[in-house]
Amino acid sequence: MIEARKIILICMLILLVNPFVFSEETRQNKNILILFSFVPSTPAYRVITEGIRTSLTRAYGDGFNLHMEYLETERYPKGEYPKERFELYNEKYKDIRLDLLICVGIGIIEPVKKNACGIILNLPAITIDFDLSEYGFYQELNLNDRTAVIGMKLNIMSTLNTALSLLPDVRSVYFISGISSADRMYLNVTRAIADKFDKHREYTFITDISMDDVLRMVRKLPDSSIIVIPGFNMDSKGVQYYNPESIRLISQAANAPVFSYSDMGFGDGTVGGYILSFNNIGLLAGETALKILHGTNPAEIIITEKDIYNYLFDWRELKRWGLVGSKRIPEGSMIRFEDVSFFQTYRLIITIGILFLVLQSLLILNLVRLYRKQKLFTRRLIDSENKFRDLVREDRVLRLGQLTASLSHELNQPLTAILSTAQAGLRFIESKRMDPSLMKEILENIVEDDKRTASILSSIRGMMKLEKREKERVNLNALIEEIINIYQSETMVKKINLNIKLTDQPVYIFADRIQIQQVILNFFTNATQAIENIKAIDRTVVISENVNNDFVTVSVRDYGQGFEESLKDKIFQPFISSKKEGLGIGLAISSAIIDDHQGKIWAENMPGGGAMFSFSLKII
Amino acid sequence: MNKASCIVYIVDDDPSVRRSLSLLLMSDGYQVASIGSAEELLELELEDYTGEGCIILDIFMDGKSGLELQEEINQKFNRLPIIYISGQGDIPMSVQAMKKGAVNFLEKPVNDLELLNAVEEAIVISRREHTEQQETEKVKKLLNSLTAREYEIYCLLITGMLNKQIAGKLNITEHTVKLHRGKITEKLGVKSVAELVKLAQKINL
Predict the structure, then answer these.
(1) What tens digit of pLDDT does each residue of A160-181 get?
(2) Mean pLDDT across chain B, nearest whole number?
(3) What's the ipTM?
(4) Is residue A454 within 8 angstroms of chain B, CB to CB?
(5) C-alpha angle with apex A357: A351 to A361, nearest 5 degrees?
(6) Between A246 and which of A232, A508, B7, B108 could a Cys-Cys bridge form, CB atoms 3.0 to 4.6 Å apart?
(7) What pLDDT, on the 0 to 100 scale, is given for residue A12?
(8) Considering CB atoms only, which of A412, A445, A452 is closest to B87?
(9) Which residues in chain B have Cβ-Cβ distances shorter than 8 Å to A427?
(10) What tens digit of pLDDT does each residue of B175-194 get?
């Protein structure tokens, strides 16, 4: 009665903890009960469960419930399993419509069949257990006539042969086994076929040994040995290990490769080989469960056993034993945990990176080269500019020298005249031969010569103005209009008719505004004087501006007598003049200005009479 | 010295210079001819030219320069002394001018005394040359008045030969030589052989 109360209490606890069990939704969900022979946290069980869950999730999503119980058959001798457990299950699951029972574990069917009652016994079932009939071990695998059996065969020979063909020089094989019931089972079936083993090698079975002793021993195994661990879940001291754990310890200590029958321990230190895959068993169980849940009769389901074995190798272990890339690894084998190098992983990125660096380096090199080149060119440019400046300076000095010579001659003349005239005057006075008319003549001569000197000096000043001026972008039309404004008063006084022909669009030149104005003004002055001197009938001065491609030409034309054709080439030289007054310096200055502007200046006698003076400059 | 009888030819293409130099020379009492170019000088008609005077020539002028035309000027003006004036006198040019017979080379602006002294010197030279020329002409005229025989004997006399030697050389009598000698001294207006030799030197015989 106390038991019954306990059961009720547990039920109530379950109710409290898991209220969804009774929700409406769960009625449509598939409910699957998995019975394990041992705690479900056993690594193999976990892998199987995961496989089942994966398969079911693919089909139902969240629409299924996995209920798990375990029988602890280890703890209870065969057949003495407490029936109360099953009663409890019946009670526990009475409101849940269980759809399927999956029994997992070595020898699980026997206690279930013996002790279960009610619904559990009549559920469609899947058995997952070893089918060891070929080794002479028989056990019950069918729970009822609606049982699908996944009978795992232990292909010990194949597993062993795969290992040995990988390492043909192995002389000693050490089977190291724990003492749990599973361990004993594995060891027993191994021993059962030991007489079929290759006789060239030595086979040693080690069991009932503490882990410490195992580790001590595996450190000093003879050369050309391998270790096979059929199962090691408990050592002689009764310390429990799970297979992966014990394999890891042994593998780390061992001086020989470690093999096992299944993928328990794969990734923890076994080399691999032809091994049983619990993961595949889980997936297979899940698929089988789906078939059953979809209404297939479990008894009719044919399980193909080959799906549960794999050729599987651990790359790290292969590497450890110098077997990477070995031709003895069977074709189609899966190799896991390959230690892909950093370069392999990021090959593309690294390649791109290196390429980028190389390109960048090339670019930088090129930039450095260009920079040096530019520096060189700059230096050369400066050099040639200096040379050019020197030349210009020399030229200027030369021209100045010529000019000075001319000027000193020009100044000498009136100075000579003044001196001699004045001295003559003095002499006339001394000799008392001076009369007023002679005195007047002498003084007039002096005044005239003095004026002439002054005009030469003012011309020199005008010439000096040529030096040192900055050029700028100038609107030529505006410039000409300014000049016309200056000139207009003179034209009015002198009754000159000014005819202006400028372009509609402004024309821009790069020039010294004042100097260009000086040139045009000089043209105007010449034209005016030509008209004045000759008493020309047509008192017209024409100023015109013409654009031709990149050049603009400014011309000033008069209708005077023109100039002597013989002077045509010399007219722009200093002190060449066809006029009685004037030095002939104006056109020389104009020429120098236009030269300085890289322009052209010329003079021509026009067919209709008169002269035309022109200059042309580049338009910007 | 009678300055008024001297003519100074002023040749310069600059009218004001020409004018001023004229005034200066006129103030000192010279006759002045003002001429605009060397070519004009060559074309000048020499009417009242006395042979006394000088030429003031500007080296740099429009047209042909004074230096270029110096030969012709010398010929035309019977080696009348030339004073060059220049605004840009330099040594090579002055050397060239002097070689061609210029008497002076002055730089503009020229000081009055400098110019007047130069002109005076030049005129003295011209006058001396003029006098010498006149004397030479006179001697030449006198010698021309001799007969061929007389001239022959004259030429032998001035070499210092005695009457007897001359007679021997010409195959005539010593008496005949004496007669001719009397005629010669008479015609030439000299008394001694020494004077005869002097005359011969004047015309570079």
Answers:
(1) 999 999 999 999 999 999 998 8
(2) 83
(3) 0.73
(4) no
(5) 145
(6) A232
(7) 54
(8) A412
(9) 24, 27-28, 112
(10) 888 888 888 888 888 877 78
Q: For residue B13, give how far its alpha carbon lies from the nearest alpha carbon of chain A (Å).
A: 10
DSSP code at position B162: -
Nearest to B94 by CA among B40, B57, B52: B57
Tens digit of pLDDT for each residue in A395-441? 556 666 666 766 777 788 888 899 999 999 998 998 888 888 989 98
- Provide the 10 A C-beta neighbour count for residue B130: 17
Which of A29, A48, A55 has the alpha carbon at shortest distance from A286? A55
Phi-psi region of A600 (alpha: psi -120 to 50; beta: other; left: phi over 0): beta
A424:B111 CB<8 A? no
Tokens coding A478: 């505006």
How far B110 CA lies from chain A's nearest CA (Å)? 6
User: Which whole-number Å values give the CA distances from A185 to A151, A177, A188, A229, A414, in the listed order?
Assistant: 15, 10, 5, 12, 145
Contacts of B14 in chain A (CB under 8 A): 413, 417
**DSSP structural state of residue A222:** P
- CA of B192 vs chain A CAs: smallest distance (Å): 50
B24: nearest CB among A409, A412, A424: A424
Give A461-474 pLDDT, tens digit per residue.
666 655 556 788 98
Out of A427, A441, A445, the one facing B112 most closely (by C-beta) is: A427
pLDDT at position A260: 92
Amino acid A27: pLDDT: 46
Chain A residues in contact with B25 (beta carbon < 8 A): 424
Does the pLDDT value for residue A23 go beyond 50? no
The torsion angles phi and psi of A574, rounded to 5 degrees, stand at: -65, 150
The residue with greater pLDDT, A616 or B70, is A616
- What's residue A369's pLDDT? 94
> Using CA atoms, how far apart are residues A190 and A204, in angstroms rounded to an integer?
11
Chain B positions contacting chain A at CB under 8 Å are: 14, 16-17, 19-21, 23-28, 60, 87-88, 108-112, 115
Chain pair A-B, CB pairs under 8 angstroms: 82
What tens digit of pLDDT does each residue of A215-235 get? 999 999 999 999 999 999 999
Mean of all residue pLDDT scores within chain A: 84
The total of other beta-carbon atoms located within 10 Å of residue B104's CB is 21
Cβ atoms B65, B86 nearer than 8 A: no
Q: Which residues contact B101 (CB under 8 A, 6 or more apart)?
A: B70, B74, B79, B82
Scan residues 378-437 of A and list those with Cβ closer than 8 Å to B.
405, 408-409, 412-421, 423-428, 431, 433
- The closest CB to that of B20, out of A417, A428, A433, belongs to A417
